Amino acid sequence: MRKIKYAMAYFVIVLMSVPPVFAQDPIIYPNKGQSPEQQEKDKSECYAWAKGQTGFDPMQVPTATAPPPAQEAPQGGVVRGAARGAAVGAVGGAIADDAGKGAAIGAASGALIGGMRRRDQQSQQQQAEQQWANEQAANYTNQRNNYNRAYGACLEGRGYTVK
Fold first, then answer.
1. Tens-of-pLDDT digits for all 163 residues of the chain?
2. Single pTM value for the model
């Protein structure tokens, strides 16, 4: 559960860091001399229409369309690698008549390999989370752009210039 909350927070941070070009409201000019009251009425009606057409509500907090990638249970690691390496090194050292030296060398090698394996897992997890966040941000941008197109079309149909 904590992982999902972390991923959702990460998604919102990614959305906040995306250039705000996609989230800008259009600039609207009343071509037919509409009063401020009429402009607000038209904007409100076009908001509702565009929301209905696209299924997107720009007033809502962004939500993810898919769950974040599952985090894999850590495998290996420094301690486990050291233990395995020590066992293998002791066997190899016993063959060479120095089990202690072989165990020490094996433990050091195993710890190094285990640490590298753990770092690789963490890196892959971070890459998966970044890819997920980028996909969510792209999806949001696409939905927002579709909404803006529908909203603009509605206002243009009512006699406004929309940029």
1. 555 555 555 555 555 554 444 457 899 999 999 999 999 999 999 999 999 999 999 999 888 877 787 776 655 554 555 555 555 554 444 455 555 665 566 666 666 676 777 788 888 888 888 999 999 999 999 999 999 999 999 999 999 999 9
2. 0.59
> Distance (Å, rounded) from C-alpha 153 to C-alpha 131?
33
CA 100 to chain centroid, in Å, comes to: 48
Alpha helix stretches (DSSP H) within 24-97: 36-54, 78-95
Q: Which amino acid is at 120?
A: D
Cβ 82 vs Cβ 111: under 8 Å: yes
